[in-house]
């Protein structure tokens, strides 16, 4: 089937944007089709796109040019992605292998946790071709287990049902993987995202290189920053509001044999205020809260929350210490986040220097035409006085 693009739609596709909105299509779209050929007004084919079921995005570009798209090309792209990640992280056993649009496979995410492969599909074509997709995964990775984590909120936009299940191998969701010298145990069926925050991999490692003295990891989840900091720190205090997360972090402390890490179930906002009030001080404070503004509707409350925790963090850091502050809120730009942190620094009356601006790990590439893929911000500040 062929679908004509409007003039503005053609310019959008020609500029490299993989998302085609309804207003950029001149013809009706056959929703029973998996793929369509996109043409200019003169009929020349310029791309092949997957049919999407959402109200906002009508089509997602799979391939540019007039060559037909096939499952063989999907397998070739997955193999290319796997080879690139192996070059990025030689010897590593956990990372994102396929990152959706940024890897030219829209709506598809594939993560590796040792011998377990987790697949997350967010658009219609992969639901319809799930059998073929899983065959590709088994051929490329030869895993001992494949897990389908189709429970992300992105499926809601296309009206797709949420599900999570083991499709091949051991029915348990437990998996053990490594980040550098640190080992983590996670449940790829029930834990956040596809089992872990792989996008923070390199930021975890960097904090491990810089940590010293007494460290506070205020939103620890499974202990990502805390455990990497433990090798160089004198003490590490890891907090998480959810008891299940704190218990998982504590198990990971035992798994790695650290004796200088303490994990507590606590509300970080309350604790940060209490530390300031009581005069408690730390050499390194890490702030990596869950997404406080997933959608633009919640941005004002999120800005207040980010300012609050950063204000307290800068007030409780010793001179010469570090504040590592992160935001995974996609609706908050790096510039906007920097402004919030700057306001917190002014409120804390501290003299600081910005040491590093970081983002997601290299296995989570950014599509230059989709700001949505550039969501993770990680700034490292050094407090001078």
Query: Count of helical segments?
Result: 10
CATH superfamily of the largest domain: Vaccinia Virus protein VP39
Strand order of the main beta sheet, please? 15-14-13-16-17-19-18
Order of helices and strands: EHEEEEHEEEHHEEEEHEHEHEHEHEHEE
Approximately how much helix is present in the residues? 25-40%
For the sheet with most strands, the description reads:
7 strands, mixed
Tell me the CATH architecture of the largest domain: 3-Layer(aba) Sandwich
Low-pLDDT runs: none
Gap between N and C termini: 65 Å
* Structural classification: alpha/beta
Could you give a quick summary of the protein structure above?
This protein is an alpha/beta fold.
Task: Describe what this molecule looks like in 3D.
The strands form four sheets. A seven-stranded mixed beta sheet has the order 15-14-13-16-17-19-18, with helices on both faces. A five-stranded mixed beta sheet has the order 1-3-4-5-2, covered by helices on one side. Strands 6-7-8-9-10 form a five-stranded mixed beta sheet. Helix 2 runs parallel beside helix 4, helix 8 (about 270-280) runs parallel beside helix 9 and helix 9 crosses helix 10. A hairpin with a 5-residue loop joins strand 3 (about 35-40) and strand 4. It folds into three domains: about 1-65, Roll (Archaeosine Trna-guanine Transglycosylase, Chain: A, domain 4); about 70-175, RNA methyltransferase domain (HRMD) like (Transcription Regulator spoIIAA, 2-Layer Sandwich); about 195-385, Vaccinia Virus protein VP39 (Rossmann fold, 3-Layer(aba) Sandwich). It is built from ten helices and 19 strands. The model has no long low-confidence stretch (mean pLDDT about 95). By secondary structure, it is of the alpha/beta class.
């Amino acid at each position: 089937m062929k679908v004509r693009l409007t003039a503005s739609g053609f310019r959008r596709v020609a500029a490299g944007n993989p998302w085609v909105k309804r207003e950029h299509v001149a013809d009706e779209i056959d929703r029973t089709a998996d793929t369509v050929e996109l043409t200019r007004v003169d009929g020349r084919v310029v791309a092949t796109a997957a049919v999407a079921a959402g109200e906002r995005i009508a089509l997602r570009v799979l391939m540019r040019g007039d060559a037909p798209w096939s499952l063989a090309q999907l397998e070739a792209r997955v193999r290319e992605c796997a080879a690139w990640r192996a070059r990025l992280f030689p010897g590593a056993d956990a990372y994102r292998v396929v990152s959706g649009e940024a890897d030219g496979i829209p709506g598809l995410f594939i993560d590796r946790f040792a011998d377990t492969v987790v697949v997350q599909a967010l658009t219609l074509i992969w639901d319809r071709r799930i059998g073929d997709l899983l065959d590709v995964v088994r051929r490329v990775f030869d895993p001992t287990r494949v897990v389908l984590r189709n429970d992300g909120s992105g499926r809601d936009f296309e009206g797709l049902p949420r599900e999570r299940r083991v499709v091949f191998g051991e029915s348990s969701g437990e998996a053990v993987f490594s980040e550098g010298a640190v080992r983590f145990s996670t449940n790829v069926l029930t834990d956040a995202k596809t089992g872990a925050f792989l996008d923070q991999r390199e930021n975890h490692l960097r904090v491990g290189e810089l940590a010293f003295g007494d460290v506070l990891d205020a939103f620890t989840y499974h202990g990502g920053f805390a455990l990497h900091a433990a090798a160089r720190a004198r003490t590490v205090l890891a907090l998480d509001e959810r008891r299940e997360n704190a218990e998982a972090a504590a198990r990971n402390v035992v798994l790695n044999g650290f004796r200088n890490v303490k994990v507590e179930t606590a509300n970080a906002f309350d604790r940060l205020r209490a530390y300031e009030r009581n005069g408690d001080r730390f050499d390194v404070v890490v702030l990596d809260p869950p997404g406080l503004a997933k959608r633009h509707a919640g941005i004002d409350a999120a800005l207040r929350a980010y300012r609050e925790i950063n204000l307290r963090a800068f007030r409780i850091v010793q001179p010469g210490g570090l504040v590592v502050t992160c935001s995974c809120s996609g609706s908050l730009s790096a510039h906007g986040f920097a402004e919030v942190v700057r306001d917190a620094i002014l409120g804390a009356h501290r003299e600081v220097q910005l040491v590093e601006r970081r983002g997601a790990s290299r296995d989570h590439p950014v599509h230059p035409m989709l700001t949505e893929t550039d969501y993770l911000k990680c700034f490292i500040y050094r407090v001078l006085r």
